[in-house]
Specification:
The chain is built from 15 helices and 19 strands. It is α/β, with parallel strands linked by helices.
Length: 486
């Protein structure tokens, strides 16, 4: 091994996009920790920099590409720094990334994070010779590179570690768990990939076909996490309600699939709270709905992406359900679990969406009264059916105006729902410091609402009682009930 690689012991991972990417980054941190790396909070401190990227929306894609381009400057002071790109942009663009940015040492897809140690060893043994950096270059493109050795941009690179295979049979769910779960909450992957064919979505091409993890492995991981301090688990998958484990079949009390898994976790582990995300409404059946009534460990919250309130648009999206079917699911959920929180996703300005069709989405928002939503303007993604077959006919200014109407309509609903909670006493899992770095603690109610409050850091990872004192647009403020015993 070249001498300059002996002390590569600091890593930095920049994560973009969804909860699946967040979970993948946590698993990569664990793998790197086993190799002796420590995590640092800034890329300039690191010997290994990884960009875990998202391409689901155009904005996330361009942001990642811009930062990848600028990252060449980190080799100026630390020529031995390794830089890798993983996640969905890596899967989508592949070797083109390495060709465009010669300072990149490895490119690997989301199915290959378990191979990260081997990729690092491969690139070290290839003895790449980075050249000094002359200037920073333009934002979004690599800095100007100059030095001996030739090659594009002044790099002579013997190899790029590249691994983009998307073969379900090769996929390995990582079983490593941290020694301590300080926040009390964690993601556990139960499926990867997606077999749905939503016309706007690039996930199947960058995450591959659906693969379900063995139920016994999931239960074993949750048990280990509970011993490390886990109180709340979120079962994770691109389409988590399609969970269909391999043999032997999962059966507990006649329940199979995701419902059976939730039942087994509640019965066979000491976990206190169970969540799952994200389901496709077309796969939400009566058995799963009943589990919200029968299982007190299943949190009273469901994120149920609808995308549009118009049947014609839903059909063009190939979502597999109707407006009426979605409303029936909402009705049944609220009948079986009083106070259940329902959140959702929306796309504004899908190709061909008329003003009348958009008004049906606004009407759905008002009818359902969601607790909160995520909403985005439509962005065309390469290779999707919508990009190939539909003209992106809705003008950008119209998309933006529709998006703002969706958000402003929901803002009023969320504020009213939050106001109704003022004065109530609720149980809360303390997960960390508040996101505005005010020194207060932050926690999550069972219904998924965020509460910020003043408290001792010793409460981190514990469940306490909180009185809601103030409602804000996207969160709550509270005070701790002092008879808690942390």
């Amino acid at each position: 091994m070249p001498a300059k690689y002996v002390n590569l012991k600091r890593c930095f991972i920049k994560t973009y996009g969804c909860q699946m990417n967040e979970h993948d980054s946590q698993k990569m941190n664990l793998l790197l920790h086993r190799l002796g790396y420590e995590t640092v909070d800034a890329p300039e401190k690191a010997d290994l920099i990884l960009f875990n990227t998202c391409t689901i929306r155009e904005k996330a894609y361009h942001k990642a590409i811009s930062e990848i381009g600028r990252s060449a400057i980190f080799k100026k002071c630390r020529p031995q720094t390794l830089i890798g790109v993983c996640g969905c942009v890596a899967q989508q663009d592949g070797i083109k990334l390495a060709e465009r940015y010669p300072h990149i040492d490895m490119v690997f897809g989301p199915d290959q994070i378990n191979k990260l140690p081997n990729l690092i060893r491969k690139i070290r043994s290839s003895s790449p010779r980075p050249s000094p950096i002359k200037g920073e270059g333009d934002i979004g493109s690599p800095p100007t590179l100059e030095g001996e050795g030739g090659g594009e941009g002044g790099f002579e690179r013997l190899a790029v570690a590249l691994d983009l295979i998307n073969t379900p049979d090769e996929y390995n769910f990582l079983n490593d768990v941290p020694d301590k779960v300080e926040s009390g909450c964690a993601f556990v992957t139960v499926t990867k990939g997606c077999n749905c064919s939503c016309t706007y979505c690039i996930v199947p091409s960058v995450r591959g076909k659906e693969v379900s993890r063995a139920a016994d492995d999931i239960i074993d991981e949750v048990r280990k996490l509970v011993r490390a301090g886990l109180k709340e688990v979120t079962l994770l998958g691109q389409n988590v309600t399609s969970y269909n484990p391999p043999t032997p079949p999962l059966e507990k009390g006649g329940k199979r699939g995701l419902t059976g898994l939730i039942k087994r976790l509640a019965d066979e582990t000491d976990i206190l709270r169970i969540r799952f995300t994200s389901p496709n409404p077309r796969d939400v059946d009566e058995e799963l709905i009943r589990e919200f009534a029968e299982n007190p460990k299943l949190c009273p919250h469901i994120h149920l992406p609808v995308q549009s309130g118009c049947n014609e648009v839903l059909k063009k999206m190939r979502r597999g359900y109707t407006r009426e079917g979605y409303l029936e699911i909402v009705k049944l959920l609220r009948e079986v679990r009083s106070g259940i929180s329902i959140t959702s996703d929306f796309i504004a300005g899908f190709p061909g969406e008329t003003e009348t069709q958009f008004e049906e989405t606004i009407d759905l928002l008002k009818q359902v009264q969601f607790d909160s939503i995520f909403a985005f303007k439509y962005s065309q993604r390469p290779g999707t059916k919508a990009a190939i077959e539909f003209d992106d006919s809705v003008p950008v200014d119209v998309k933006e105006a529709r998006l703002e109407r969706v958000l402003s309509t929901q803002r009023k609903i969320t504020c009213a729902k939050n106001e109704a909670l003022v004065g109530q006493i609720r149980e809360l899992l303390v997960t960390g410091y508040d996101r505005k770095n005010t020194g207060r603690l932050m926690g999550r109610l069972a219904d998924n609402r965020i509460v910020n409050f003043a408290g001792n850091i010793n409460l981190l990872g514990s469940i306490v009682r909180i009185r809601v004192r103030r409602a804000l647009a996207n969160s709550l403020e509270g005070e701790i009930i002092h008879d808690n015993n942390p």
